[in-house]
Amino acid sequence: MAQLAKLEAAVAMKNPNKLMDFLKNNIQALPQLFPQLYKSVEIVGGGRQLATGSIISLSYYLPGTPTLMRGSVEVESMDEARKSIALNVIGGDGLKMFKSFRVKCEIDDEQPQLVKWSLEYDKASPSTPPADPYLEFYINLTAAIDVL
């Protein structure tokens, strides 16, 4: 039986466009700028910009744990006009707890100072805890980029 769940958060930023621009053009700089969050980020197959279909290999730390997590995500969609990006986890530690895991980030048209994060996931078992640490991770990332 599917254990589908969804978490959402809205984070205020001084300039939300900075987040989208950073993710598209500077994602590989995350470990140097935020070593408390990332150990490594690489666009598989090269390239410097994210685009729909890009594969990202990364190592990261979830809030509240010193354990290094590893994963791979595919950019499912990147829509500059709608100011949104959707990622699909395709490998790594996260898929040990979740059968599927999708992340979406978008700037709210009605409140353009807000960045909305949504996580949609399918728990591997009923005892799998919610993905709250992952949502906290993205909230922390947003706050860190906001002060750059």
UniProtKB/TrEMBL annotation:
Q: What is the lineage of its organism?
A: Eukaryota, Viridiplantae, Streptophyta, Embryophyta, Tracheophyta
The residue stretches assigned to a coiled coil in this entry are: none
Annotated signal peptide: none
PANTHER family in the record: MLP-LIKE PROTEIN 423
Biological-process GO terms, alphabetical: defense response
Q: What is this protein called?
A: Bet v I/Major latex protein domain-containing protein
Name the domain of life this protein comes from: Eukaryota
SUPFAM superfamilies found in the cross-reference section: Bet v1-like
Where do the Bet v I/Major latex protein domain residues begin and end?
2-146
Do you know which InterPro entries this protein is assigned to? Bet_v_I/MLP, MLP-like_ligand-binding, START-like_dom_sf
